[in-house]
């Protein structure tokens, strides 16, 4: 699969409609940025049974028994925001796939920011398929790292397959979506891996700019990956 063509086609869709795609991506980008940048409190014991926690320059005193509770609450908030951001970004990918297929008028509406909630099947399917992916990839990673990475790529198209099945009026199960993704990616996992590697320079730019470049990079990368899925389905057809 020609990476240059994939990226050029993605830019051809993204560039003239960048304002539209940026606006529908904004909630997802902000949530993921906040979850990444939110400072975890530093905790240290100052007296026996008494701890100080430093957060944004302010010092709070907590008892030893509340330290674990405090950390668990903080971690739960970050995990929730990260999950919500990922789900919203899946909805953005749905919109990008529609755009590449010529099914979008690119007219912004607030509801398009939350496309993942447009239908209950989109939200529930994406959430449960993501959970299945996480469990299976974790189990593979538990054995060996490389097989886990391979399986992550094999399962990577499941949400798009599931959504297309719903839209076609022929819904499938969650595990069936993962199975079809594995079949669709057969012989293409290396292409996908190399495509991801080709964004390494862009990831470095995001780090150097402390995330500011993500305003362009994340929509560009997402559009390219959406185009990758379309090319796979066209080859299979």
TrEMBL record:
Transmembrane annotation, as ranges: 20-40, 77-101, 122-146, 192-218
InterPro entries from the UniProt entry: DUF975 (IPR010380)
First and last residue of the signal peptide: none
Keywords: Membrane, Transmembrane, Transmembrane helix
Name used for this protein in its record: Membrane protein
Organism: Lacticaseibacillus zeae DSM 20178 = KCTC 3804
């Amino acid at each position: 699969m020609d990476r240059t063509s994939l990226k050029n086609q993605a830019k051809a869709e993204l560039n003239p409609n960048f304002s539209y795609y940026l606006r529908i991506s904004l909630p997802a980008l902000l949530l993921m940025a906040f979850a990444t940048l939110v400072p975890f409190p530093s905790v240290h014991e100052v007296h026996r049974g008494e701890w100080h926690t430093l957060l944004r320059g302010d010092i709070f005193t907590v008892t030893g028994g509340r330290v674990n509770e405090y950390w668990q609450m903080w971690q739960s908030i970050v995990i929730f925001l990260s999950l919500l951001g990922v789900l919203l970004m899946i909805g953005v990918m749905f919109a990008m796939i529609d755009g590449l297929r010529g099914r979008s008028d690119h007219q912004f509406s607030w509801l398009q920011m939350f496309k993942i909630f447009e239908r209950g099947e989109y939200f529930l399917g994406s959430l449960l398929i993501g959970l299945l992916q996480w469990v299976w990839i974790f189990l593979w990673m538990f054995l060996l790292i490389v097989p886990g990475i391979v399986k992550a790529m094999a399962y990577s198209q499941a949400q798009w397959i599931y959504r297309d099945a719903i839209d076609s009026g022929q819904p499938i199960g969650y595990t069936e979506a993962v199975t079809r993704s594995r079949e669709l990616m057969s012989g293409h996992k290396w292409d996908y891996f190399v495509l991801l590697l080709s964004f390494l320079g862009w990831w470095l730019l995001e780090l150097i700019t402390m995330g500011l470049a993500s305003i362009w990079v994340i929509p560009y990368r997402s559009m390219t990956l959406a185009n990758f899925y379309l090319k796979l389905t066209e080859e299979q057809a």
